[in-house]
Design brief:
- The chain contains 17 helices and no strands.
- It has helices spanning about 5, 15-40, 45-75, 80-105, 105-130, 130-135, 140-165, 170-185, 205-220, 220-250, 255-280, 290-310, 320-325, 330-360, 365-390, 395-400, 405-420.
- It starts with a helix and ends with a helix.
- It is found in: Cell membrane.
- GO terms for molecular function: transmembrane transporter activity.
């Protein structure tokens, strides 16, 4: 058993891991089911499908931009375990709304649940990273971060696969049950009181506190470069996730089970990359492999583009089912491309998150993660808006896909600067 895997047998790590896993599973089961219901059951227009996917991504991301400063303050100045219990209680209420939207096939109700889920994740997000240096030893932080990332993407895998194979009515029942399990797991997270002696007063002015938080973090060169690199990664991820459902339906002419397969392959790859980079770095926090990883990621996206450009659908205009798609001559190549994109993406981003929690004192880690979330979410919203704008003016899914390799080159440049700054 490797040292990082042993953390799963420790109460100081396992309850947080389970809480995060269940939350990520529920988020993605609901979001994937919602997008599939809209793509295959409500809309029949490629532009509307891409626009809905982009809108859902933007709504989920906006709370990170607006509320991360407050969530970071709370996590650094209050017991993190108590906040976990509160947000997990709220998740049950949110999933009641989401389940209602799925049952009624109501776009406004489903989007309202997505927005509320974004708020939930905004307040939980800083904790899942900031609590690690508090509960783990210094040489366990990278391994713990890798396990959290791997677990998150395995949860995404499970949620996205399940969404393509069960009916919306069943999804509604499952998300409620998983929210309850997450609440139970959250109650087992050990206490994580604030590390600072004097608790500062909370600033509820979201604009002022956000500006102060970001400016107070970004002046540190290695944090500035790490946050910018992570932001480009999540912008790339936003573009890919937005494009996957319409790409599957309108380019690969396949059904919702194949859409789930695409997202599942992506999730498996990121999990593999998250664990692999920890082994390559031997537990040391370093950006040594980040530039090469993201360049390779761009190369795999180009490979995906060329495979998609030559794709041949069924002659009668039907959609491929899962079995038919798997036997298509190009299925193996597109699977390799997707897996390559995801593995290299995981290898790129995990060490950068470890920078956020090891560069600053422990009593500032949540605010550092929150500052990162503000910049990341702003970049993701910009990415979603760009996709919506390009779709509106007639850009195809494949044309938009070509944005990704260009962004990978910028991310590689930033990662190289980070690596040099840390030598």
């Amino acid at each position: 058993m490797t040292p990082s895997i042993r953390l799963l047998a420790r109460r100081r790590f396992l309850p947080l891991f389970c809480t995060q896993f269940l939350g990520a599973f529920n988020d993605n089961l609901f979001k994937t089911a919602m997008v599939l219901v809209a793509t295959y059951g409500i809309y029949s227009n490629a532009e509307l499908e891409a626009g809905f996917s982009a809108l859902a991504t933007a709504l989920f991301t906006v709370p990170f931009f607006l509320l991360s400063a407050l969530s970071g303050q709370l996590a650094d100045t209050r017991d993190k375990a108590r906040i976990v219990r509160l947000v997990k209680t709220l998740e049950i209420a949110i999933m009641v709304v989401g389940a209602t939207g799925l049952l009624l096939k109501s776009i406004p109700v489903m989007l309202a649940a997505v927005l509320a889920m974004g708020v939930h994740s905004t307040f939980f997000g800083p904790i899942k990273y900031a609590i690690l240096p508090q509960h783990l030893e210094p040489d366990e932080v990278l391994g713990g971060t890798g396990l959290v990332e791997a677990g998150t993407y395995m949860a995404i895998l499970a949620g996205t696969i399940l969404a393509g194979f069960i009916e919306p009515r069943t999804v509604a029942m499952v998300v409620l049950g998983v929210a309850l399990l997450g609440w139970l797991a959250g109650r087992q997270v050990p206490a994580a009181p604030p590390m600072a002696g004097d608790l500062p007063k909370l600033d509820f002015h979201i604009v002022r506190s956000s500006i102060a938080l970001v400016s107070g973090t970004m002046h540190i060169p290695r944090l500035f470069l790490a946050i910018c690199s992570i932001s480009f990664f999540w912008t790339i991820g936003a573009v890919l996730i937005i494009e996957f459902p319409p790409l599957v339906k309108n380019v690969f002419t396949a059904d919702e089970q194949v859409a789930s397969l695409f997202l599942a392959i992506f999730s498996v790859g990121v999990a593999i990359g998250s664990v692999l980079i920890n082994r390559l770095l031997g537990g040391k926090v370093s950006a040594r492999f980040a530039p090469a990883s993201v360049v390779l990621m761009g190369g795999f996206v180009l490979f995906m583009y060329f495979v998609a450009s030559g794709w041949q659908g069924l002659p009668d205009g039907r959609l491929f089912g899962l079995a038919e798609f798997i036997h298509h001559p190009g299925a193996a190549m597109i699977s390799v491309a997707l897996l390559g994109v995801a593995i290299t993406g995981g290898m790129f981003v995990v060490p950068l998150y470890a920078f956020l929690t090891t560069t600053v004192p422990k009593d500032q880690t949540a605010r550092t993660v929150a500052a990162n979330n503000i910049v990341n979410s702003g970049a993701m919203v910009i990415g979603a808006v760009v996709v919506m704008a390009l779709t509106t003016i007639g850009a195809t899914v494949l044309q938009i896909l070509l944005l990704v390799p260009a962004m990978c080159l910028i991310a590689a440049w930033l990662a190289q600067k980070l690596h040099r700054a840390c030598d």
